Amino acid sequence: MERLHLEKELGNLRLKALEMGSLTEKALSQALKSALERDGGLAETVLDGDTEINRLHCAIDESVLSILAREQPVARDLRFILGVGQMAANLERIGDQAVNIAERVILLSQRPALPHNPLMEELALHVQDMLRRCVGSFNSDDADMALQVCDMDSRADTLNMKILKHYVDFMIQESRAVERAVHLIIMARCLERVGDQCTNIAENVIFMIKGVDIRQTCRP
Amino acid sequence: MSQTVKMEARNLNFYYGSFRALEDVSLLFLEGQVTSLIGPSGCGKSTFIRCLNRMNDLIPGTRVEGALTLDGENVYDAKLDVVELRRRVGMVFQKPNPFPKSVFENVAYGLRVNGIKDKNYIAERVETSLKSAALWEEVKDRLHQSALGLSGGQQQRLCIARAMAVEPEILLMDEPCSALDPIATQKIEELIFELKATYTIIIVTHSMQQAARVSDMTAFFYMGRLIETDKTETLFTRPRNKQTEDYITGRFG
Ligand SMILES: Nc1ncnc2c1ncn2[C@@H]1O[C@H](COP(=O)(O)OP(=O)(O)OP(=O)(O)O)[C@@H](O)[C@H]1O
Ligand SMILES: [Mg+2]
Questions:
Q1: Helix B103-113 and helix B152-165: axis angle, to 10°?
Q2: Which residues of A touch B239 (CB under 8 A)?
Q3: Which of A18, A98, B69, B160 lies in disulfide reach of B133, CB 3.0 to 4.6 Å?
């Protein structure tokens, strides 16, 4: 006996989640490329692309609700469905962070550039890597890869703090650049949040695969 | 929640002639808990619960090996009073099986078998049992009419009342809702929630949802063996065994 209908529904849900994952990766990489190249036009595409991410998030929520109501799934099916719901919510927020970054690029690209900051580039690459890996761990049911993502989060936090300190010092010297520096601080903060959201997704993936909750906050 | 072991099977084997229907089943039941037994047809669920009150003794050519205890005492002890055992371990079957007697006499039956004659006491037990089986309101004006005139769901609740009249300590239910509509099923499930304060309940069910809803513990049987037992919540969210997972997610093949 195979639950073909349920299998199909779960397969569709997986596809939607992967599609949402790849759109989110694209949004983040476009936002970061636009920042690096001071390309306001590219930043606009990120804003436009967010609609589709939001639409997929709603579609996933709807499927989750419907499968729960109609199939009453248990065990790995139940964990998968709940996990996908949470993953979609986190991806949607990552999409919002990409939009936040793109909005700042649009503002900054009309102003003179501040000196290149290698820490910012490192943070950008680091969280992009986290996103790629957490979506990949979901795609290939790889709990070890997901665990690596969780371990990467502290580096994102450290980089964010360094960037903050860097721009605080910078603003003391360059009072005319305060507004631009604040935008850069916020961008770093957005990236750090992406790291947190990737960690949430990775924790979800581990829960889906193993049924254990590794979140610090959920330990007794 | 009390953690007293009410009943315990240790390496229980059961044979119908030369066919071994149960293989080394070890399972314990805590007082005041509801345990569901699940598993595909023919895996031995009914055989197992029939061992618990020695209903299988009635089938010729059968044999039991291993240990089964009730409050620490051996159930298969030759000196044990089987009538008293069945009073302590009551049973409700898959198909409602009321006797062709009045509603009242059905519930009073077990008391009379146990030699009780006090009319007032009997009337009081009948009323209390029908009330706890959530049937009193529906039958109080037809107590002396035939039980066969009740609906299937009412008959099943009557059988539960009949089982409870003799104040058992354990209630065995073998697919008690399989013939019932969702409303009657829900009434029986609500009843189980209420009864578990007083009784230890063991229920065989083919409905995963029912097992998930009503029981504290769930045990999965396959081909005469106990494959996995755990807290219901755990078994339905992260079973340890692949066969359990395949069965409860409907991928058994
Ligand atoms: N009276 C009997 N004589 C011989 N074999 C029997 C007898 N009763 C049951 N069996 C066999 O013992 C095995 C277990 O049967 P049992 O009735 O305990 O299964 P079950 O899990 O209750 O199945 P179902 O879900 O269909 O009620 C089956 O192979 C069955 O054919
Ligand atoms: Mg049976």
A1: 30
A2: 75
A3: B160
Where are the domains positioned within chain A?
Answer: 2-210
For residue A148, give both structure tokens: 């690596």
Cβ proximity of B125 and B119 under 8 Å: no
pLDDT in tens, B49-68: 999 999 999 899 999 999 99
Which option is the CATH number for A2-210: 2.70.180.10, 1.20.58.220, 1.20.1250.20, 3.40.50.300? 1.20.58.220
Instruction: Compute φ and ψ for A140, nearest 5 degrees.
Output: -110, 15
Q: What ipTM describes this predicted complex?
A: 0.73
The domain that contains B241 carries what CATH number? Answer: 3.40.50.300
Please report which ligand is nearest the Cα atom of B37: 1
Half-sphere exposure of A136 (CA within 13 A, CB side): 12
C-alpha to C-alpha distance for B158 and B167, rounded to whole angstroms: 15
CB A6 within 8 A of CB A77: yes
pTM value is 0.84
The radius of gyration computed from the CA coordinates of chain B, to the nearest angstrom, equals 18
b or e along A29-53 (b: 16 or more beta carbons within 10 Å of the residue's beta carbon)?
Answer: bbbbebbeeebeebbbbbeebbeeb
Residue of B12, B15, B16, B52 to test ligand 1 pocket, by largest number of atoms within 8 Å of CB? B16
Task: Look at residue A84 and tell me whether its pLDDT is greater than 80.
Answer: yes
- Structural domains counted in chain B: 1
